[in-house]
Amino acid sequence: MSSARGPAWGQTEFESKALRHALGRYPTGVAIVTTRSADGRDIGLTINSFASLSLSPALVLWSLVDRSPNLAAFQQASHFAISVLAHGQQDLASRFASPAVVDKFDQVAVCEAPEGVSVIDGALATLVCSTVKHHGEGDHELFIGRVVRLDTREGSPLVFHHGRFESLLNLS
Hints:
Blueprint: H1 16-23, E1 28-29, E2 31-36, E3 42-47, E4 51-54, E5 59-65, H2 71-76, E6 79-84, H3 90-97, E7 110-112, E8 118-120, E9 125-137, E10 140-152, E11 158-161, E12 164-167
Antiparallel strand pairs: 1-11, 2-3, 2-6, 4-5, 5-10, 6-9, 7-8, 9-10, 11-12
């Protein structure tokens, strides 16, 4: 049985731009991951690579590009926090994604978890994790964390789709 797209279905050779375009068709949640560096500085960045790995034990994963200036801080951290953003928190997502913003936490409402990491106030879900493992795969470092504390609230999530922030109601 042949595919409706013909016998030569799909591309076997493609550039990273084509892959990025294809992946952009998959809507993802938007979160900010935070930790504290060895010298006590808060570090945070916007991610959409966050996913559940296991419910028992409670494990999550996320990835960071291997050329990030924050890579060493996350590799050395005993804990990190994932703050899942709500629709309406696009400014926070943009702020923590921008390399031009030097102090990402300046005038941002945060609270400190007992584990010593800052979390974003008003996030839909916050998961504080102990770092279980990290290792490189491709051009990213994968981080696995055991959820040790969580907090949730009601609201609509912020999603990233087709290269822009959206609401679940606006996806097309």
